[in-house]
Write a structure and sequence with these properties.
This protein has 512 residues and is α+β, with helices and mostly antiparallel strands. The protein contains twelve helices and 22 strands.
Length: 512
């Protein structure tokens, strides 16, 4: 017998017919299994009837007859399937975000985007960046293969939806795109014929970061509306990561340019005078700070070259900005380099009248070769006075004092004249060296006395050797502890007779 509901569901199951002949195969097999020795009437079975999903429960009577109860669970199965797909998509989007945000490299972001899209969303994927000149930067990827980068000489407006996507317009439905219009560069080698295409923008910060192109082969299911929506969700995350990577690359490039201008220069011998310098910022991860030095060669051979070494109050990027301003101002004042007091006064006026609230200390040194020695004029503006290292090991403090710049309306300084014999040196340094705390107990300053003892041991050494020695011992003293910026410049009279200089940037020719 059958119920009225069963009558509508299984019209062929009439009284007197064989049950297994008129029901679906899955239910027939379950019915036959109940007759076997391992029968289990408590386990339900599932299957489809007339496009609906049913769960069948059996009840075995004492006479061996079986009654089947069918429950329509189509809606429940659809809900469970939708929940499963939603979980998988959520996991995929989370994985996408983690992979994309783990790198701020634009090319890496494009590679990951193409590979993930090909693996989970399509048979092949293309990530197209905005045009550079007349070429499109493209990353393509087949499912199961590695991403491939290329540059295509193509007009994005020749592909329906691509030009609009690169300009950030909303995507057109995939059913509006004829797969046959896909250009050769958009079809990977060996891919076969294209069955369906999805093109969606990769949204960025204000402007589109690019476009995502998804391909499926002929013979596979076309993209559904739900899949297109999910592709746009994926593209949103990928576009944000690519936009962040592009912004980071641009900022890094700008920073590199600025840092090249702010970094202390490499020093060499100029007109028979040895110059060497060393710099260590307060933080190892930084390249610039508040200490600086420059050497400006004389415009005319035989005149003095100007050395400037200073220390801006503070450290890090903010101090480096003022450092750049001071260096540029001093460069503009080079025509009056013979008058240290005038240079300091004009620099002080420029700093006092600026919006900066920081001040700086400064020492200027004019150095010129005279015979076998070097004549110096040294002027300190609130800076530790230079130290003179004689060949016999004596260390003298240059008799120069002055007011720091940028703090009060008038800055006064006293200039000292010093002569260096062959093998003697003048050491300019910042207080980051003498005030560096460390040593056996970790809190003792390196100090001026210790610096002078170190320099006494360096008597007769070339300028490069003195710089390296001071830097090494100061670094060992602070160890891994915190310290201020450290800068040192050494001016030396070579132990040789100058014959000629080659272009002012090499050691020239000397004889003993």
């Amino acid at each position: 017998m059958r119920s009225d509901a069963a009558d509508g569901l299984l019209p062929a199951a009439l009284p007197g017919t064989v049950f297994t002949d008129v029901v679906p195969a899955w239910l027939s097999a379950a019915h036959d299994a109940l007759k076997g020795p391992a029968r289990d009437a408590d386990t339900p079975v599932s299957g489809a009837i007339s496009g609906r999903s049913f769960e069948a429960h059996s009840s075995v009577h004492s006479d061996g007859s079986v009654v089947w109860w069918l429950i329509d669970d189509t809606d429940h199965r659809l809900v469970r399937e939708a929940l499963r797909m939603e979980r998988e998509r959520t996991e995929f989007l989370a994985k996408t975000s983690n992979l994309l945000l783990s790198s701020l490299n634009l090319e890496r972001c494009m590679d990951v985007t193409a590979q993930l899209a090909a693996e989970y969303l399509a048979d092949a994927a293309f990530v197209v960046a905005p045009t550079r000149g007349k070429q499109l930067p493209v990353v393509s990827c087949l499912r199961g293969a590695d991403p491939v980068r290329s540059r295509e000489s193509a007009d994005p407006d020749d592909v329906p939806g691509l030009g609009e996507a690169l300009r950030g317009f909303p995507p057109v439905p995939s059913r509006w795109i004829d797969p046959s219009v896909a250009p050769d560069w958009m079809v990977p080698e060996g891919f076969g014929s294209v069955g369906s295409i999805v093109i969606t923008p990769l949204p960025g910060h204000g402007v589109a970061a690019g476009a995502l192109v998804l391909l499926r082969r002929s013979g596979t299911a076309a993209f559904t509306d739900g899949e297109e929506v999910f592709a746009r969700l994926f593209a949103t995350r990928a576009g944000a990561a690519m936009s962040a990577a592009r912004l980071y690359a641009e900022q890094t490039s700008i920073t590199e340019v600025l840092m090249r201008e702010l970094l202390p220069p490499s020093l060499h011998q100029i007109s028979g005078v040895d110059f060497s310098g060393g710099y260590r910022p307060s933080e190892d991860h930084e390249r610039i700070g508040g200490d600086f030095y420059d050497v400006h060669p004389a415009a005319v051979e035989g005149e003095a070259s100007l050395v400037a070494l200073g220390d801006v109050c503070g450290k890090g990027l903010e101090a480096a900005v003022l450092t750049g301003k001071i260096r540029n101002t001093l460069h503009a004042l080079l025509p009056m380099a013979d008058d240290h007091q005038q240079m300091i006064s004009l620099l002080n006026t420029a700093l006092v009248n600026s919006h900066h609230t920081r001040f700086a200390t400064l020492v200027l040194a004019s150095a010129v070769r005279e015979g076998s020695g070097v004549n110096l004029r040294l002027t300190s503006a609130g800076h530790p006075p230079p130290l003179i290292v004689r060949t016999n090991g004596e260390v003298e403090e240059a008799p120069t004092r002055g007011t720091l710049v940028g703090a009060i309306p008038e800055a006064r300084a006293r200039t000292a004249a010093v002569s260096l014999a062959p093998g003697e040196s003048c050491v300019l340094y910042t207080d980051g060296i003498t005030e560096a705390k460390g040593g056996p107990l970790g809190g003792t300053e390196f100090g001026e006395e210790r610096l002078q003892r170190v320099l006494a041991e360096c008597a007769g050494m070339p300028s490069e050797g003195i710089v390296e020695r001071v830097q090494m011992l100061a670094s060992q003293w602070v160890g891994k502890g915190r310290h201020d910026d450290m800068a040192v410049v050494v001016i030396s009279a070579p132990r040789t007779q100058h014959l000629s200089a080659v272009n002012g940037h090499t050691r020239g020719r000397y004889t003993s």
